[in-house]
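Lecture notes, unit on protein representations.

Consider one protein chain, 203 amino acids long.
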Amino acid sequence: MTSSTPDDGDQVVLIWLPVGAGGHVVRRTSAWWEGACALVARRRPRPLFHAALEVRLGGVPYTVEMTPAWGHAPVERGVVATGAVGARPLGRSRLFRYEVRCWRHGLIPDRSYAVGPAVVVTRDAVATARLLRAVPAVPALTWGRRPTGAHDMWNSNSLVAWLLARAGLPADHEPPGAGRAPGWTAGLLVAERGTGGGRHSAR
């Protein structure tokens, strides 16, 4: 695992994006949420980060991330799974549904806001292929709810942590500076349990 500029070989690269980058509503609401969490924990608020992966295998680039389903143009985005946001019944509406993407030749809209150097998790082709195969099998847990026994909610960071753990790759990553990545430990817990989910949808 290194922090460097990625090259064009087979690799899995972790990037950290500030939560709400490029938008005002999410940035403000997440700041309020972090402020409340900090007050309860009697600590100072910390910057929040969202993890995403840039993957290259056999010369083909992919982007892997979890995002809200609403607000996107009706074009191919490599969606391989969906789930509900907030509560499972709400997932029948696109406004309360998220999508998991494994997007061939795709892009991460907020990539320009990435903080810190990209983290090259592996350059091993076998491990990289194993991670890509695992993406459609991510459990479709409800975004914002805690998996049983977890002290953290399921979200986009959970996806990345789950994938790294399932692929047998280092998953002890932390966001830049003093930032936090809510949901990371939930992903590791679910991966440790071997929880599956296949292509379950909230539609």
